[in-house]
Structure formats: structure tokens, C-alpha cells
Design a protein that fits this description.
The structure holds 2 protein chains of 2 kinds.
Chain A: E1 3-14, E2 17-29, E3 34-38, H1 45-52, E4 60-65, E5 68-69, H2 75-85, E6 86-89, H3 101-111, H4 116-129, H5 145-157, E7 163-167, H6 175-190, E8 194-198, H7 202-205, E9 210-215, E10 218-219
Parallel strand pairs in A: 3-8, 3-9, 6-7, 7-8
Antiparallel strand pairs in A: 1-2, 1-4, 4-5, 9-10
Chain B: H1 2-15, H2 17-45, E1 57-66, E2 69-73, H3 80-87, E3 91-107, E4 114-122, H4 126-130, E5 148-152, H5 153-157, E6 169-172, E7 176-184, E8 196-201, E9 219-224, H6 230-251, H7 259-264, E10 268-275, H8 276-282, H9 295-336, H10 341-378, H11 389-415, H12 419-422, H13 434-467, E11 477-480, H14 490-499, E12 503-509, E13 520-525, E14 535-542, H15 546-550, E15 554-557, E16 570-574, H16 575-581, H17 585-588, E17 592-595, E18 605-611, E19 626-630, E20 636-641, H18 646-660, E21 668-670, H19 671-678, H20 680-714, H21 716-724, H22 729-763, H23 774-800, H24 804-808
Parallel strand pairs in B: 4-8, 5-7, 14-19, 16-18
Antiparallel strand pairs in B: 1-2, 1-9, 1-10, 3-4, 3-6, 3-9, 5-8, 6-7, 11-20, 11-21, 12-20, 13-14, 13-17, 15-18, 16-19, 17-18
Classes of the chains: A alpha/beta, B alpha+beta.
Chain lengths: ~220, ~800
């Protein structure tokens, strides 16, 4: 079992009241699944994704990732866990503007302390696979939105994660670019990568194997 | 990885040229200022440090209060040196200097004189004590015989090739002949001998052999044995007063003196010593061998240097944390890609390292450019030791430390950002740390206002000195040096000069209110009892035209007058002298005064006039008692010129001089310029204050400007909302500016009492000084706030005129 959420609650105090962001979330994700999370604005989609990505904490419940009890882990261990197994794709791409495409792809490998020659091979392979060899020396500002997101996905994959978490990956793209990214996800999923995406669009959700609907922090 | 850090550091700096410029330039200016100050302080602290066994060398000195005046002398009686050597086994050797100031020097058989500015008679133990060797000549026998001298290399080269200098004969002041027995390397720039170029054998100097304790004219240095300590030696030095000075005074001019009544009148005579290495910074006494500096200036400058660095590094922190908003997204992304806190801290430290390093390079360039100006202001001859690896080592270490200190807060601050927060939406969130930033702004402005206050006070005091009624007229007076070189022709030269149409008056004397010769002696009123106190007075030899030429004002009696045949026994005193006598100026007229140690009344002088007190030494000192009497002896001539073009008149005087004294140098100075030189130290301090105050305000403004830009950016949304709700541009810019003014205002309030206290302390040094007025504080505050308004309002207005649709669209 890749992800196992059991009775997850998350809340904040606002004006003396407890506001629930997540309420009693129970979710199991097997390896190789492609899950879409849907729901209106403020329903807790992104919060759930961040909790699963270990970027955010929760207040109650248990979370096992690859049978490791995340809720019991120290922050440092948690960080190590997601660094190793999770890749993130963002709505606003979040490429580092000061680095070229090549350098952006290389960065996760630097943090993993992978030797230079190996790094080069992996990045070259990735550039090749995404067909962006010609753009490797360009800066993000010189690319279209779709191309930037392509690099974003490539960067998420470069560390060979088991799970990709994508927060509205097509939110800033036009429909054609969006379609390309979804096709890419589908292909990656077929190759064995587990994907969880947050989306507003029924069409995009349809790419997934399963859809989870959220309303006011609760699964419906 | 490090390469990656460097790369991204470089690129993000390039991407934000404005921010990078503010940061580097502010830091570079601060570093350059601090670098120059450090070199200055280093130079000052290392004065007199080059002598081999210098830590054992001390200079004797004496504090005397006698005859109504207290004096601190750097000189002692001639017999003190030999006495120390004979009586105390711990004194290994002694060397005495009898300083003479300038002398005219020519090679025997030639006519043309060359002036050497500083000359002295010195004991032959000089070489051994200070560890000097001779370039030419035998160091063992040098200066053991009368009428021999040694020259420094540059002094020798004015007359002959140094290889055949030894054995040549020189004529000093057209009078005495001396044989050259050695050539010595020029003395170290940062030593008390720096200006000396000619040293004569003490052996031939009669006054040096006198077993007398009355006059203080010899700078006496002694070297203690390695086991001895100055602390233990001090009481022994002190004991000389009882064992030698008291018996001497009793046997000569005050037979009735007892130690008890001497002390009962509040008098004292204390011998002490100052270590050679402390000489330059702690000794400012009468008759120093060369002008010394003081520790206060070193402290003040060190503080200013420190202020600059702190200001610059505060700027850096402020701008970096403010700027971190822009980097928040990057931090978030890096964290999700696997970076941990340490990696980020390292990355940001690398970045601040890069900035400080670039600043260092800029700072060195700035320092090189500013060095000539700085040397001029500080009256130094400092060079940047580019070839010294230690210098670079220190510079690099300091840069690294500075980079680390100023970079660490921003680094730790930024590495704490949480990805789930900063990656939300398009990435704009608020960053914290505003309390610290506000505190830093307060701090910066407190320092700046403090410096502004100091500058205003120093400037006012200087103005006061320049404009104070001095009691004499320094304008349009030229002093011609070394007129004695004309010999018998001196008087006729004066008459010739007086005949020139543009010359109003001329007088011959050795004594002028500007830095020149000084002699003081104890005097007594004729008819006073033996127990009556002597009056310590300056005695100035003048001629009949002195009072008119210098413009002294008589408050009682009359000036010297040729129609009175008796004026050769007449004396004019100043108000202080009369005051010490305890009588009014009118009562003083007709009183007879004789030298304190004179047996008979034969040579007594009669007071015929009293002049208003005039400032003949620095305004740091009270005006002491002084008398004028007639004499034919003079070293220089003062000439009072009519207003108009001086150059023509000077040319005429010079041609007269050439005819009476062919081959003698014509050397003159203007009295007002020389007067100004008396306050060089204060003026230097003034200029240094102004320069560095401007620098520090500049740095503080850079920081404020950057912070205002950041603040405006951070509040774009708020400003947009306010505008939509109907706020005017004026209201918004007022609001934004006011936030900063509050901080500046607090800074001002903090610094006012500090400035008040510190500058009152500084003023206490002057016997004649301005009143510290409250409006100085107000003015300093207004200046600071005014500058702050100018700095901030640009950014505030810029932010306020932005169309709200633009600023609100981001959400």
C-alpha cells in the first residue's frame, strides 16, 4: 500500500472557532493508481494534497506512507521520505527563474548528491524523453506556459519518484496545452507512476482511474 | 553544489540590479571608510614601535605648579639624565635631546644656506639606546666629540654625495662650525624622530653640563634594565624632588623654601615617565620633540569606523530580509525538490559572501580613489599595503566574517519559509521580521543623528575659534624667518623694509603669538619677602614696534617709546600676570620685577604698561602670564602690510633681503595661516567628522530607500484597496511616509541625549569654548527627518500613483 490515510482531521482556530479544513479523511492509494481529487474552491483539495505530500501537517488521524507511520515521524525523516518518493507539479509551474531548463532538471539530483556523470546522463535522458533537448539552455521566462509545465513534470520525474502530486497542473494552461499534459500523465501512469491530481475539470478527471470528491473538507 | 550556489547567487544578483546596487554599494562605501580608518588607527597605534628594545625605554617628564601656574613639561633639567644613571642601578642608559627647531645649514666655503626644520643636540648613547646604526661613519665614536654632527640621508644629500660626507664641515646658522661624523638612514615616518634631520653632539653644549635643576629644556629618555619595572621605579623617580630639587632651590634663589610651605601653597613638582610606545598617543606636553596625537582621536575614529561597518551591515540585513519576499517561492520549490534547511542556509550565505566579496573589491577601489583626500584630511602619509599578504589575509577574513554576520540573519530567516505557505497561489505572501527591520532603522538613524550633532558642534567650535577676538591682529602680518642670518645688517634690513610704501609696521623679535619660541621663568616683585611666591611668566624679547605691529591693546600705562631713555629697563605685562600678582592693572604700573633667582635688584624691570590678554597658544589652554621687554636679539621679523596685493610687496622685501643677506633663504609665512595651523588637529577632526557623517547618512539613506521600495511593494494590494475606496494619492503617500518617519523620529530621540553628553565632554577640552545650544539638537533632528522624507517620499508617491486595477489583479 502506497498511501493510507485514516481518520485525518485538520483545523485552524479563527475568531475563537474551530474551522475544519479536513474532516475525517479515509483514503487508500495503491501503487499504479491515477486519482483525481475534485471539489469546489475551499473544499480542501490542495490541503489534502499537501498533507499527502508531507508539506503540511494534520491534527488528528494516522497516515502511513509505504507502511511508514508519517504521523510519528520527525520533520527531518518526513522530509527525507518525500524527497525520495514524491515529485510535485504545481499550477504555476514554480520553476526557478534564475536557472536554465537543464539546471532546473538537475537540481533535485544535486540535493540527492548524485555524482556529476550520472546526473548528466539522467538529465539528458529526461530531456530526450520530453523532447526538450533544444530548449535546455533557455530560462523559464523564455518558454510558453505549456513548455514550462512540461519542464515542471520532467523535474518532478527526474528523481524517479513513486508518486506524483499535481496541484491543478493545467490550471494556467490553454486547453490544447492542458490536453498534452494530461496525455503525458496518462502515459506516465501506464509506465507505472502513481499520480494524484487536483483538478476542477471533469474532462481532466476522466484521465484518472478513480475520482474523489471533496466538500467542506469531507469526502463525499 | 557550491558551483550551483554561486551560479544562482550571481544570476539572482544580476536579475535585481537595483537591489544589488543598493546592497553592494552601501556595503562597499562602509567598508572603504572602515578600511581607511583602520589603516589610520593602525598607523597611530604603531608609533614608536620600531625600536629594538623600545619596551624598556621611557621618557622622563615633570608636572610643575609654581608661581600661580601649572605646567606639564616633556622636558626636564639637564642634570636629571646623569643623575638617573648614577643613582639608580636599574637605569641602564640615558639619552638626552636638546631640541632647537630649525637651523640654517651650509657647507663650509659656500654661501647658500639650506634650512633643516628639526635639529637637536643629543647624547652619544642615542645609537645604542634606540638601536640605530650609521650608513656612513663609525657608530661607536660618533657624537662623542664637541662640534660634531650626524645627518640623515636626505639632509646629507642636499650638500654632498653621502659617500664622502664624513669629515666635511658644515656651518650652522652662519655661526658655528661642525664636522660631519656620520650619515644615518632617514628616521622612521611613524616615530618621534620623524622630522629630525640633523643631530649634534651634546658634548659641546655648555648648558647640558650645568648641574642645575631650575630650567627644563632637555627631553630625557632612559632605558630600564630587563628586570626592572616602571611601576617600581616611579617612586624613586619621584624622590628626586626631595633629594635634589629642594636642596638646589634652597641654595640658590629661595633660601626660605621648605617642603611644607611649598606644598601648603598648593604647589607641586612631580617627576614621572611615559613609555616610549605610549608617547605618541598619551603625551601632549610643553616642548615635545615632535607633535603627538592623542588617544581620544583614535577612539573617536575607531568608533566612526565601527559605526560605518555596522551601518552597512545593518543595511545589508534589512535589504536582504525585505527582499526575501521575492525569494520565497524559490525557497518553497527547493524544499519540495529535496533541499533541507542547512542547504538553504549555505546557499544564502554563499550569496551574501558573493555580495560582500564584490563589495570588498569595490571598497578597495573606492579606498584607493579616496586615499589622497583622506591623507590630506588626516595629515598622514598612509599607503594601502597591497604587497603585504597579511593585509589581504585580514581583509579576506574580515570580509568573510562580515558576510557571515550580515548574511546569517537573512539566511536563517529565509530558510524557515514553509513551502505549503509560500507556494500557494502566485506566491505573494507577507514576510515577517518587520520588528527587527524597524529596530535596525531606528538604530541607523540614531547613529546618523549622533554624527550630525557632533559635526555641528565641532564646526561651531571651529568657527568660534576663528572668529574670537584674539587680543592681537593676525591679518596682513607676514613673519620673515631667520632674519638673524643678516647678522649686523638685521636692523638696517628692518629700516629698509619700513620704508616700503605698502608696509605699515615692522618689528624684530623671536616671539610671536603663533607657534614660535617660548621661554618662561619665575619672576618676583622687588621688595617681596623670600617666602612670597614667584610668578611663572613667559618672557618675550621684543623691540619698540612690537605692540603696534602685532596689534596688542594696552589696558593701562603706555607702549615702549624711544623718547623715554629708560625703556631698556621697562616691561609690559599681560592681564593674567597682573591678576596673579593680585593687583589692578593701574596698581601694577611702576612695580619692579626681577628674575626669581636673581640675587640683587640691579636688573629689575619696571612695569610701564599692561596689555589685554591675547591668545598666544591654543584655546585649549588658559592664557598664561607673560611679559615683554626690549632686546636686540631676534630670529625673525613681523611685517604689517597695508591691504591690497601682497605679492608685489613681498617681492620688494625679498629683493631688500637679497641685498643685505645674499645667499640666505627668504622664508616667510602669514600669521593668520600659521594661526590656523594651531587648530589643525581640530580642523582635521572636523573634516573627518563631516566626511564620515555624510557617508553614514548616505548609507542609512540607501537602506531606507531600499526598505521604502520594499514596503511599497508589499503593500501594493492594500494601497490598491484604499484607492478603490477613495483615498487620494496625497493621503496614501503621507501614510506610507509617516510609517518611516516614526522610526526615524525614535532614532532621533535616542541619539539626542547621547550627542548632548558626548559633545559636552569634547568641549570640556577647550578653555575657551562655545555654549552647547539646544537648537543644535533640533537642527540635527530636522536634518535627519528632512533627509528621510526626501528618501522615502519618492517611493511612497511612486506606489501611490499606481492604477489600482493593476495592483489588485494579482489575486
Amino acid at each position: 500500500m502506497l498511501v493510507q490515510l485514516d481518520g485525518i482531521f485538520k483545523w485552524v482556530q479563527q475568531g475563537g472557532q474551530q474551522i475544519f479544513l479536513l474532516k475525517d479523511i479515509n483514503l487508500e492509494v495503491e501503487e499504479g493508481e491515477f486519482i483525481s481529487i475534485m471539489g469546489p474552491s475551499g473544499s480542501g483539495k490542495s490541503t489534502l494534497l499537501n498533507v499527502m505530500g508531507m508539506l503540511d501537517t494534520f491534527d488528528e488521524g494516522t497516515y502511513n506512507f509505504l507502511d511508514e507511520p508519517v504521523h510519528n515521524l520527525k520533520e527531518k525523516h518526513r522530509a527525507n521520505l518525500y524527497k525520495q518518493y514524491i515529485g510535485f507539479v504545481f499550477q504555476a509551474y514554480h520553476l526557478i527563474d534564475e536557472l536554465t531548463v537543464y539546471e532546473n532538471l538537475e537540481m533535485p539530483l544535486l540535493y540527492k548528491k548524485i555524482p556529476s556523470s550520472e546526473r548528466k546522463a539522467i538529465v539528458a535522458d529526461m530531456l530526450d524523453r520530453f523532447n526538450i533537448v533544444g530548449k535546455k539552455d533557455l530560462f523559464p521566462g523564455q518558454l510558453s506556459g505549456g513548455q514550462q509545465q512540461l519542464v515542471g513534470v520532467a523535474r518532478a520525474l527526474v528523481g524517479k519518484p513513486k508518486l506524483i502530486l499535481a496541484d491543478e497542473p493545467t490550471g494556467n494552461l490553454n486547453s490544447k496545452q492542458g490536453e498534452e499534459i494530461m496525455e503525458l500523465f496518462k502515459k506516465l501512469n501506464e509506465e507505472g507512476v502513481t499520480i494524484i491530481q487536483v483538478t476542477h475539470s471533469e474532462k481532466n478527471a476522466a484521465y484518472g482511474s478513480r475520482t474523489i470528491n471533496l466538500l467542506d473538507g469531507r469526502m463525499v | 553544489m557550491f558551483k550551483n550556489y554561486l551560479k544562482i547567487a550571481w544570476r539572482s544578483l544580476k536579475k535585481q540590479p537595483f537591489f544589488t546596487f543598493l546592497n553592494t554599494f552601501g556595503l562597499a562605501v562602509g567598508m572603504a571608510g572602515a578600511l581607511l580608518i583602520s589603516l589610520y588607527v593602525y598607523d597611530e597605534l604603531n608609533y614608536n614601535n620600531t625600536f629594538a628594545e623600545g619596551d624598556r625605554i621611557h621618557r622622563a617628564q615633570v608636572d610643575i605648579k609654581f608661581g600661580g601656574q601649572a605646567r606639564a613639561y616633556a622636558v626636564t633639567p639637564p642634570i636629571l639624565g646623569p643623575t638617573l644613571k648614577n643613582d639608580f642601578p636599574e637605569v641602564e642608559s640615558i639619552t638626552r635631546f636638546r631640541n632647537w627647531g630649525s637651523m640654517l645649514v651650509r657647507k663650509e666655503g659656500t654661501q647658500k644656506n639650506v634650512k633643516e626644520q628639526n635639529t637637536a643636540h643629543v647624547d652619544p648613547s642615542f645609537f645604542d639606546m634606540f638601536g640605530f646604526d650609521l650608513l656612513k661613519g663609525d657608530v661607536v665614536s660618533a657624537l662623542t666629540e664637541p662640534n660634531t654632527l650626524i645627518l640623515t640621508r636626505s639632509a646629507a644629500m642636499k650638500h654632498f654625495d653621502i659617500n664622502n660626507a664624513v669629515g666635511q664641515t658644515l656651518v650652522l646658522n652662519n655661526d658655528e662650525t661642525y664636522r660631519v661624523v656620520g650619515v644615518i638612514e632617514d628616521f622612521p615616518k611613524n616615530s618621534f624622530l620623524r622630522n629630525h634631520s640633523l643631530l649634534m653632539a651634546m658634548e659641546g653644549l655648555e648648558s647640558a653640563q650645568q648641574p642645575e635643576w631650575g630650567g627644563n629644556n632637555f627631553n630625557t629618555f632612559f632605558k630600564l634594565s630587563p628586570e626592572a619595572s616602571m611601576q617600581e621605579f616611579q617612586p624613586k623617580l619621584q624622590s628626586i624632588f626631595l633629594s635634589y630639587v629642594v636642596p638646589y632651590v634652597q641654595s640658590t634663589f629661595m633660601p626660605g623654601l621648605t617642603v611644607e610651605n611649598f606644598h601648603a601653597e598648593g604647589n607641586y613638582l612631580r617627576y614621572s615617565a611615559v613609555a616610549l610606545k605610549d608617547l605618541h598617543l598619551s603625551s601632549n606636553r610643553v616642548a615635545e620633540l615632535s607633535q603627538n596625537s592623542d588617544m581620544q582621536t583614535v577612539y573617536i575614529l575607531s568608533f566612526i569606523g565601527l559605526f560605518l561597518i555596522v551601518l552597512a551591515s545593518v543595511n545589508f540585513m534589512n535589504l536582504s530580509t525585505a527582499h526575501s519576499l521575492k525569494r520565497a517561492k524559490e525557497v518553497g520549490v527547493r524544499k519540495t525538490l529535496g533541499s533541507n534547511k542547512t542547504d538553504l542556509v549555505k546557499q544564502f550565505l554563499t550569496e551574501s559572501g558573493v555580495i560582500t566579496f564584490i563589495s570588498l573589491l569595490v571598497a578597495v577601489v573606492l579606498a584607493v580613489i579616496a586615499l589622497p583626500y583622506f591623507n590630506q584630511v588626516a595629515n598622514k602619509d598612509i599607503s594601502i599595503p597591497f604587497l603585504n599578504p597579511i593585509f589581504w589575509g585580514i581583509l579576506l577574513v574580515v570580509t568573510l566574517v562580515l558576510g557571515f554576520i550580515s548574511g546569517s540573519y537573512p539566511a536563517f530567516f529565509m530558510s524557515r519559509f514553509r513551502p505549503s505557505k509560500v507556494l500557494k497561489g502566485s506566491g505573494q505572501t507577507s514576510v515577517g521580521g518587520s520588528k527587527l527591520r524597524n529596530g535596525l532603522v531606528v538604530f541607523q538613524f540614531a547613529i546618523s543623528v549622533f554624527l550630525i550633532i557632533s559635526t555641528l558642534v565641532v564646526y561651531q567650535q571651529l568657527q568660534y575659534i576663528q572668529n574670537k577676538d584674539l587680543g592681537f591682529n593676525k591679518e596682513q602680518v607676514v613673519i620673515i624667518n631667520d632674519v638673524f642670518a643678516a647678522g649686523d645688517q638685521m636692523q638696517s634690513f628692518k629700516k629698509e623694509v619700513q620704508r616700503i610704501a605698502q608696509v605699515k609696521e615692522a618689528t624684530l623679535s623671536s616671539f610671536y603669538p603663533t607657534p614660535s619660541h617660548r621661554t618662561d621663568s619665575g619672576f618676583k616683585i622687588v621688595g617681596a619677602s623670600a617666602e612670597d611666591k614667584t610668578i611663572q611668566m613667559q618672557r618675550w624679547q621684543v623691540d619698540h614696534d612690537y605692540v603696534k605691529t602685532i596689534g596688542l591693546k594696552l589696558v593701562a600705562g603706555r607702549d615702549f617709546d624711544r623718547s623715554f631713555g629708560t625703556d631698556s629697563t621697562a616691561m609690559i605685562v599681560n592681564e593674567t600676570a597682573v591678576k596673579i600678582m593680585g593687583i589692578s592693572p593701574e596698581e601694577a604700573l611702576g612695580k619692579q620685577i626681577k628674575l626669581g633667582d636673581a640675587e640683587s635688584n640691579d636688573n629689575a624691570l619696571t612695569i610701564i604698561g599692561v596689555v589685554q590678554n591675547f591668545h598666544y597658544s591654543s584655546m585649549k589652554d588658559e592664557i598664561g602670564a607673560l611679559n615683554l621687554y626690549l632686546s636686540d636679539r631676534a630670529t625673525s621679523m613681523a611685517v604689517k602690510l597695508a591691504e591690497g596685493d601682497f605679492s608685489n610687496t613681498l617681492a620688494q622685501i625679498e629683493s631688500k633681503w637679497a641685498s643685505v643677506a645674499p645667499g640666505q633663504p627668504f622664508d616667510y609665512y602669514f600669521m593668520d595661516e600659521s594661526f590656523d595651523e594651531t587648530y589643525d588637529a581640530e580642523k582635521r577632526l572636523g573634516s573627518i567628522f563631516v566626511t564620515f557623517t555624510l557617508l553614514s547618512i548616505f548609507i542609512a539613506c540607501l537602506g531606507l530607500f531600499g526598505l521604502a521600495a520594499f514596503n511599497a511593494e508589499k503593500r501594493t494590494k492594500e494601497i490598491g484597496v484604499r484607492k478603490v475606496l477613495g483615498a487620494s494619492v496625497g493621503q496614501i503617500s503621507y501614510r506610507l511616509t509617516l510609517d518611516f518617519l516614526k522610526l526615524v523620529g525614535i532614532g532621533v530621540l535616542v541619539s539626542l541625549p547621547l550627542g548632548w553628553y558626548a559633545m559636552n565632554k569634547w568641549l570640556e577640552d577647550f578653555s575657551y569654548r562655545i555654549q552647547f545650544e539646544w537648537w543644535v539638537l533640533v537642527l540635527a533632528g530636522i536634518i535627519a527627518i528632512g533627509i528621510a522624507i526626501l528618501t522615502v517620499s519618492y517611493q511612497s508617491i511612486k506606489a501611490a500613483i499606481v492604477n489600482p486595477i493593476k495592483s489588485l489583479r494579482t489575486e
